[in-house]
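Hey L., structure's done. Input below.
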Amino acid sequence: MKQFFLFVALVFVFSCSGGNKKQADTAVAYGVEALLAVADQNVDSTVTVVGIVTHTCKHSGKRCFIESESQTVSLRVEIDPEGEIDMFTPELIGSKLAITGILKEEHWSEEFIDERENNVKQMEQEGASHEACAAELSNISDMRKWMEENGKDYYVFYYLDGLKYEVVE
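Output:
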Protein backbone atom coordinates (compact mmCIF):
# COMPACT_ATOMS: atom_id res chain seq x y z
CA MET A 1 0.00 0.00 0.00
CA LYS A 2 2.89 2.38 0.80
CA GLN A 3 4.30 1.77 -2.68
CA PHE A 4 0.94 2.73 -4.21
CA PHE A 5 0.87 6.06 -2.34
CA LEU A 6 4.49 6.72 -3.26
CA PHE A 7 3.66 6.02 -6.92
CA VAL A 8 0.65 8.39 -6.80
CA ALA A 9 2.76 11.09 -5.12
CA LEU A 10 5.50 10.78 -7.76
CA VAL A 11 2.97 10.90 -10.61
CA PHE A 12 1.45 14.02 -9.05
CA VAL A 13 4.84 15.76 -8.64
CA PHE A 14 5.98 14.99 -12.18
CA SER A 15 2.65 15.90 -13.76
CA CYS A 16 2.62 19.25 -11.96
CA SER A 17 6.18 20.16 -12.93
CA GLY A 18 5.61 19.00 -16.51
CA GLY A 19 2.46 21.12 -16.73
CA ASN A 20 4.30 24.24 -15.64
CA LYS A 21 7.01 23.68 -18.23
CA LYS A 22 4.46 23.24 -20.97
CA GLN A 23 2.69 26.45 -19.94
CA ALA A 24 5.96 28.40 -20.06
CA ASP A 25 6.73 27.02 -23.52
CA THR A 26 3.39 28.23 -24.88
CA ALA A 27 3.64 31.82 -23.61
CA VAL A 28 1.99 34.37 -25.89
CA ALA A 29 4.27 36.43 -28.12
CA TYR A 30 2.46 39.61 -29.15
CA GLY A 31 2.93 41.51 -32.37
CA VAL A 32 3.63 45.22 -31.77
CA GLU A 33 0.07 46.28 -32.67
CA ALA A 34 -1.50 43.54 -30.55
CA LEU A 35 0.63 44.44 -27.55
CA LEU A 36 -0.17 48.14 -27.80
CA ALA A 37 -3.89 47.29 -28.00
CA VAL A 38 -3.70 45.71 -24.52
CA ALA A 39 -0.75 47.68 -23.15
CA ASP A 40 -2.73 49.47 -20.44
CA GLN A 41 -3.60 46.06 -18.96
CA ASN A 42 0.01 44.81 -19.02
CA VAL A 43 2.05 47.68 -17.56
CA ASP A 44 4.82 46.32 -15.32
CA SER A 45 4.20 42.79 -16.64
CA THR A 46 6.74 40.61 -18.42
CA VAL A 47 5.71 40.19 -22.05
CA THR A 48 7.24 38.98 -25.31
CA VAL A 49 6.79 41.08 -28.43
CA VAL A 50 7.81 40.32 -32.00
CA GLY A 51 8.79 43.09 -34.38
CA ILE A 52 11.25 44.23 -37.01
CA VAL A 53 14.19 46.37 -35.87
CA THR A 54 14.11 49.75 -37.61
CA HIS A 55 16.72 51.60 -35.55
CA THR A 56 19.43 50.93 -32.99
CA CYS A 57 21.13 53.62 -30.94
CA LYS A 58 24.51 53.99 -32.61
CA HIS A 59 26.15 55.73 -29.64
CA SER A 60 25.40 53.29 -26.83
CA GLY A 61 23.48 50.38 -28.36
CA LYS A 62 21.20 50.49 -25.32
CA ARG A 63 18.01 51.22 -27.29
CA CYS A 64 16.26 50.01 -30.41
CA PHE A 65 12.91 50.49 -32.09
CA ILE A 66 10.84 47.63 -33.46
CA GLU A 67 8.02 48.02 -35.92
CA SER A 68 4.83 46.07 -36.57
CA GLU A 69 4.49 43.84 -39.62
CA SER A 70 2.14 46.45 -41.15
CA GLN A 71 4.78 49.15 -40.54
CA THR A 72 2.16 51.38 -38.88
CA VAL A 73 3.34 51.43 -35.25
CA SER A 74 6.62 51.06 -33.43
CA LEU A 75 7.80 50.36 -29.92
CA ARG A 76 10.92 51.62 -28.15
CA VAL A 77 12.98 48.98 -26.36
CA GLU A 78 15.48 49.98 -23.67
CA ILE A 79 17.99 47.49 -22.29
CA ASP A 80 17.14 46.52 -18.72
CA PRO A 81 20.43 46.28 -16.77
CA GLU A 82 19.06 43.18 -14.98
CA GLY A 83 18.60 41.34 -18.29
CA GLU A 84 20.77 39.35 -20.68
CA ILE A 85 21.10 41.96 -23.46
CA ASP A 86 24.51 43.65 -23.78
CA MET A 87 23.64 45.91 -26.70
CA PHE A 88 21.55 46.27 -29.86
CA THR A 89 24.03 46.32 -32.74
CA PRO A 90 23.39 48.05 -36.08
CA GLU A 91 23.50 44.61 -37.75
CA LEU A 92 20.11 43.88 -36.16
CA ILE A 93 18.38 46.52 -38.31
CA GLY A 94 15.91 44.72 -40.55
CA SER A 95 15.89 41.61 -38.35
CA LYS A 96 12.75 40.20 -36.80
CA LEU A 97 13.20 39.83 -33.04
CA ALA A 98 11.19 38.26 -30.25
CA ILE A 99 12.02 40.46 -27.27
CA THR A 100 11.02 39.60 -23.73
CA GLY A 101 10.88 42.43 -21.24
CA ILE A 102 8.85 44.46 -18.80
CA LEU A 103 6.24 46.75 -20.33
CA LYS A 104 6.47 50.31 -19.02
CA GLU A 105 4.49 53.47 -19.57
CA GLU A 106 5.54 57.10 -19.76
CA HIS A 107 3.29 60.16 -19.63
CA TRP A 108 3.90 63.43 -21.47
CA SER A 109 2.02 66.36 -19.94
CA GLU A 110 0.26 69.03 -22.00
CA GLU A 111 2.94 71.49 -20.88
CA PHE A 112 5.71 69.22 -22.12
CA ILE A 113 3.96 68.74 -25.46
CA ASP A 114 3.45 72.52 -25.78
CA GLU A 115 7.16 73.04 -25.12
CA ARG A 116 8.08 70.38 -27.67
CA GLU A 117 5.80 71.98 -30.28
CA ASN A 118 7.38 75.42 -29.69
CA ASN A 119 10.87 73.90 -30.03
CA VAL A 120 9.96 72.26 -33.34
CA LYS A 121 8.50 75.52 -34.69
CA GLN A 122 11.65 77.38 -33.66
CA MET A 123 13.88 74.74 -35.26
CA GLU A 124 11.90 75.09 -38.48
CA GLN A 125 12.37 78.87 -38.43
CA GLU A 126 16.10 78.32 -37.94
CA GLY A 127 16.30 76.18 -41.07
CA ALA A 128 15.70 72.63 -39.89
CA SER A 129 14.25 70.22 -42.43
CA HIS A 130 10.67 71.18 -43.23
CA GLU A 131 9.74 67.51 -43.75
CA ALA A 132 11.12 66.45 -40.35
CA CYS A 133 9.41 69.36 -38.59
CA ALA A 134 6.11 68.71 -40.39
CA ALA A 135 6.26 65.05 -39.36
CA GLU A 136 6.91 65.97 -35.72
CA LEU A 137 4.11 68.57 -35.73
CA SER A 138 1.80 65.92 -37.18
CA ASN A 139 2.79 63.57 -34.32
CA ILE A 140 2.03 66.31 -31.81
CA SER A 141 -1.35 66.89 -33.44
CA ASP A 142 -2.09 63.16 -33.16
CA MET A 143 -1.11 63.26 -29.46
CA ARG A 144 -3.48 66.14 -28.80
CA LYS A 145 -6.27 64.34 -30.65
CA TRP A 146 -5.72 61.18 -28.56
CA MET A 147 -5.73 63.25 -25.35
CA GLU A 148 -9.02 64.88 -26.33
CA GLU A 149 -10.65 61.60 -27.37
CA ASN A 150 -9.57 59.92 -24.11
CA GLY A 151 -10.24 62.84 -21.76
CA LYS A 152 -6.62 62.96 -20.58
CA ASP A 153 -4.32 65.88 -19.82
CA TYR A 154 -1.30 63.76 -20.80
CA TYR A 155 -0.22 61.47 -23.64
CA VAL A 156 0.78 57.89 -22.89
CA PHE A 157 3.80 56.16 -24.42
CA TYR A 158 4.52 52.50 -23.87
CA TYR A 159 8.01 51.04 -24.07
CA LEU A 160 9.75 47.84 -23.13
CA ASP A 161 12.62 47.30 -20.70
CA GLY A 162 14.22 44.46 -22.67
CA LEU A 163 15.54 41.47 -20.77
CA LYS A 164 16.43 39.13 -23.64
CA TYR A 165 15.83 38.64 -27.33
CA GLU A 166 16.18 36.12 -30.06
CA VAL A 167 16.21 36.53 -33.83
CA VAL A 168 13.22 34.79 -35.42
CA GLU A 169 12.73 33.54 -39.01
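The two ends are 53 Å apart (CA to CA). Residues 59 and 89 are 10 Å apart (CA to CA).

-- N.
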